[in-house]
């Protein structure tokens, strides 16, 4: 995700300084004109606005608040926009670290996968400093088609978890439907066609269904990240005392798929867990 988003910023003419834990992954961006930095701190020292796209809450915290992290290079006038999918408490902790270092903070997780990241059609779900939202808007407009400002830090994370919980549930239900159809003697392609014409038609089913019918799962959204998002959504449900039995059942399927070695495959590989029931 980060590579595609950074590429679009370079193409739009922005002067980029990049860092990634595995530094070889920065090479295509350096070849496209970006400068490589030795640490997140160095990126923050060199840039007015820092963007980060990281795996999970642990990675987001380490990169933002670690010894050579973003906060260590922050100063007044600089801003940090974290587009990773994390929980609200993590976003709030990062916000405190950035602000006590004098910077501004915006959480901005994205809806939309690899295709929208490449095409610059992501949807940003933001919360935090309104002035940074306004300052970063031209960058978000290069990478996305719409940006929502949801006020205080944590609301972007919560919105993202709600959306991804629904998405994870939908994919698990679709996998069950395909499996039931096949065992009942129906064609999976017929199921995809019928679903695509009715009220439950979804771009996701049309996009991923044909490959799922062949048990192929080229990674756009890694299954391990979908399971992380369901875990975080279930934790949010506990915080606000909302039972989420459908999401809890879906989470079990993603955990099973992950244990069976499909964590780095696309999240549609949840079908493999359904097939094992
Ligand atoms: N893929 C998708 O369709 C979408 C993903 N997201 C969210 O975006 C985020 C990134 O997703 P995606 O790009 O697919 O994931 P990847 O797994 O491809 O990338 C994860 C990134 O996080 C880095 N990272 C992981 N752990 C650490 C750490 N401890 N310290 C420093 N860096 C670390 C990785 O570095 P390294 O290269 O060294 O491993 C890599 O750059 C996730 O939060 C995901 O939920 C949101 C919308 C869509
Ligand atoms: O977090 C991943 C979202 C994927 C998508 O919105 O298609």
TrEMBL record:
<comment type="similarity">
    <text>Belongs to the HIBADH-related family. NP60 subfamily.</text>
</comment>
<comment type="function">
    <text>Catalyzes the NADPH-dependent reduction of glyoxylate to glycolate as well as succinic semialdehyde (SSA) to gamma-hydroxybutyrate in vitro. May function in redox homeostasis and play a role in oxidative stress tolerance by detoxifying glyoxylate and SSA generated in glycolate metabolism and GABA metabolism, respectively.</text>
</comment>
<feature type="domain" description="3-hydroxyisobutyrate dehydrogenase-like NAD-binding">
    <location>
        <begin position="154"/>
        <end position="273"/>
    </location>
</feature>
<dbReference type="GO" id="GO:0005737">
    <property type="term" value="C:cytoplasm"/>
</dbReference>
<dbReference type="InterPro" id="IPR008927">
    <property type="entry name" value="6-PGluconate_DH-like_C_sf"/>
</dbReference>
<dbReference type="GO" id="GO:0030267">
    <property type="term" value="F:glyoxylate reductase (NADPH) activity"/>
</dbReference>
<feature type="active site">
    <location>
        <position position="160"/>
    </location>
</feature>
<feature type="domain" description="6-phosphogluconate dehydrogenase NADP-binding">
    <location>
        <begin position="1"/>
        <end position="148"/>
    </location>
</feature>
<dbReference type="InterPro" id="IPR006115">
    <property type="entry name" value="6PGDH_NADP-bd"/>
</dbReference>
<dbReference type="InterPro" id="IPR051265">
    <property type="entry name" value="HIBADH-related_NP60_sf"/>
</dbReference>
<dbReference type="InterPro" id="IPR015815">
    <property type="entry name" value="HIBADH-related"/>
</dbReference>
<keyword id="KW-0521">NADP</keyword>
<dbReference type="GO" id="GO:0051287">
    <property type="term" value="F:NAD binding"/>
</dbReference>
<keyword id="KW-0520">NAD</keyword>
<protein>
    <submittedName>
        <fullName>Uncharacterized protein</fullName>
    </submittedName>
</protein>
<dbReference type="InterPro" id="IPR013328">
    <property type="entry name" value="6PGD_dom2"/>
</dbReference>
<keyword id="KW-0346">Stress response</keyword>
<dbReference type="InterPro" id="IPR029154">
    <property type="entry name" value="HIBADH-like_NADP-bd"/>
</dbReference>
<dbReference type="GO" id="GO:0050661">
    <property type="term" value="F:NADP binding"/>
</dbReference>
<dbReference type="Pfam" id="PF14833">
    <property type="entry name" value="NAD_binding_11"/>
</dbReference>
<dbReference type="InterPro" id="IPR036291">
    <property type="entry name" value="NAD(P)-bd_dom_sf"/>
</dbReference>
<dbReference type="Pfam" id="PF03446">
    <property type="entry name" value="NAD_binding_2"/>
</dbReference>
<keyword id="KW-0560">Oxidoreductase</keyword>
């Amino acid at each position: 995700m980060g590579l595609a988003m950074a590429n679009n910023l370079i193409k739009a003419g922005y002067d980029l300084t990049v860092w990634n834990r595995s530094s070889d992954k920065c090479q295509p961006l350096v070849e496209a004109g970006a400068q490589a930095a030795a640490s997140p701190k160095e990126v923050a020292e060199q840039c007015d606005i820092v963007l980060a796209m990281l795996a999970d809450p642990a990675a987001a915290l380490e990169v933002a608040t670690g010894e050579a992290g973003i906060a260590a290079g922050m100063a007044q006038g600089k801003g940090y926009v974290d587009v990773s999918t994390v929980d609200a408490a993590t976003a709030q902790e990062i916000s405190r670290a950035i602000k006590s270092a004098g910077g501004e903070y915006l959480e901005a997780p994205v809806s939309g996968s690899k295709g929208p990241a490449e095409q610059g059609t992501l949807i940003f779900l933001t919360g935090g400093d309104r002035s940074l939202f306004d300052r970063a808007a031209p960058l978000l407009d290069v990478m996305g088609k719409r940006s929502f400002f949801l006020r205080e830090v944590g609301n972007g994370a919560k919105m993202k978890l709600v959306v991804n919980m629904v998405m994870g549930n939908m994919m698990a239900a679709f996998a069950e439907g395909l499996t039931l159809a096949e065992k009942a003697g129906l064609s999976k392609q017929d199921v995809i066609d019928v679903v695509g014409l009715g009220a439950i038609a979804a771009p996701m089913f049309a996009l991923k269904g044909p490959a799922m019918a062949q048990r192929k799962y080229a990674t756009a959204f890694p299954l391990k990240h979908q399971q992380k998002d369901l875990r975080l959504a279930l934790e949010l449900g506990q915080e606000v005392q909302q039972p989420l039995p459908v999401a809890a059942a879906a989470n079990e399927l993603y955990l099973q798929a992950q244990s069976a070695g499909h964590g780095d495959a696309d999240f549609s590989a949840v079908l493999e867990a359904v097939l094992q029931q």
